[in-house]
């Protein structure tokens, strides 16, 4: 349902070119929750922007529902890494969540209902009339998630959404994402650089190499569907998966260092 | 935090125009209010000195009228319709010129600010035109319109336009890329993007621009009247001066000053209302 084929993205201009992504190919089935891990700067955000139709790939293509992505697809929502900047400070929380629904031309009653329901789904009550800057970071992040949910997407992209919140909030939000995914049956691509988080959340983990970025490895997470912060994380299988991914990333780093050394030796 | 704070997020701008004046921070506004009594003392002191200096003969009363005399003359003028006609002439041309400048500056600023290509294309032209003092257009204005109100308007619009244009351009250029990406990912149309994202970002800059433009427009209105002889307070000052009615000259000068104060207070009040969500204003609530 979500296909990425031979995706390459080179940033140019300002006197330097950066090959953010070299060659990515992978696929998500409808209703799947996959986590994308990779070291910082390996092009995860770039990949997400290409999938979301916000950035044109240099070569290769992305398709959703078998249709090539040329602009932002209709049934896709994105939760950005910089959630603070993605909420509008001049609008109340309610208005922030409602704005995309207005653009979808939903009737008022339906919009009100979606706003209330989605905020409740992320555990926020009585904040509709507050402004985003009156909320804590974790609450803001939940508002951003609620806005995406209210949009009723079939595909949800989340870019390191929990990078800036404390451990407890993070655990809560992880469980929230799992429950939302199960409840709404959406296809979810979750970007993180935290291996533990990827294993805990995902049904599958896609490991990206360090730059030049390719898909290094894919792991199916054969853990029980019902996950629990304590129980799941203490399973032996959890530790194995974690070790496997860790090793892959480690190898990727070693390989890219070796490559670079070899290239330097040739030059 | 004290003094003006920049509302920009600090991203470097490829345009090399000088930085726009930024909003006063809320704390500064707060402090100013607390120090008002002290400022009032300063004003009273100045008025006293201005009263005494001509009275004890330090400066001849032929150049400087004592404060009490100015106040008396002004009080007399306030009762005459001709005074209010002059005020109205000035205020009307000020308002018309300001409105034209604000609309033109906003439209052009939004377009230039959001289209990088156009901004680069016009930046050197703007840098060339903007520093031309409006007053130097007086001969042109007179040639075109004589001492008609349109001469005055030309000066006012030219001076005020740049104030608004530069601010709005910077504002439109300062739209947060994450905010814009968010809007695009939710498929907001061009108009919705302008209304819900670009315009609110521009608003603080716009308000600063309008406040600056309002002051400049008043200056140019009075200047135009003085130099060209278009009807208004400036012309009254010139007439009073040529008939050696010194207290009357000062009475009109004080009137223009009071107008300026009113304009500034009004602009600030509007700014505070409109930008209640903005960090520079919302800080005031907490202080
Ligand atoms: N607009 C841009 N122009 C030029 N280069 C860019 C741009 N955006 C990203 N890059 C470069 O592309 C590479 C990948 O960036 P990207 O933001 O996609 O990484 P990331 O995997 O999301 O990193 P992080 O985990 O830190 O968020 C980096 O080397 C970065 O410098
Ligand atoms: Mg990123």
UniProtKB/TrEMBL annotation, chain A:
- A single GO molecular function term of this UniProt record: ATP hydrolysis activity
Offer one Pfam family short name for this entry.
Answer: ABC_tran
Q: Does the keyword Nucleotide-binding apply?
A: yes
**What superkingdom does the record give?**
Bacteria
Question: What is the protein name given in its UniProt record?
Answer: ABC transporter ATP-binding protein
Q: Where is the ABC transporter domain?
A: 2-235
User: Which InterPro entries does the protein's record reference?
Assistant: AAA+_ATPase (IPR003593), ABC_transporter-like_ATP-bd (IPR003439), ABC_transporter-like_CS (IPR017871), ABC_transporter_ATP-bind (IPR050166), P-loop_NTPase (IPR027417)
Q: Which UniProt keywords apply?
A: ATP-binding, Nucleotide-binding, Transport
Which SUPFAM superfamilies does the UniProt record give?
Answer: P-loop containing nucleoside triphosphate hydrolases (SSF52540)
TrEMBL record, chain B:
Sorted alphabetically, the Gene Ontology cellular component annotations on this record are: plasma membrane
Pfam families (UniProt xref)? BPD_transp_1
Which residue ranges traverse the bilayer? 38-58, 94-118, 212-233, 245-267
Supply one GO BP term. Answer: transmembrane transport
Q: Where mainly found?
A: membrane
Keywords from the named record: Cell membrane, Membrane, Transmembrane, Transmembrane helix, Transport
Membrane-topology descriptor: Multi-pass membrane protein
Cell compartment(s), UniProt: Cell membrane
Q: Tell me the ranges covered by the ABC transmembrane type-1 domain, including all copies.
A: 87-271
The source's superkingdom equals: Bacteria
Protein's UniProt keywords contain Nucleotidyltransferase: no
Q: Which residues form a coiled coil?
A: none
Can you tell me which family this protein belongs to? Answer: Belongs to the binding-protein-dependent transport system permease family.
Q: What is this protein called?
A: ABC transporter permease
Q: Which organism is it from?
A: Micromonospora costi
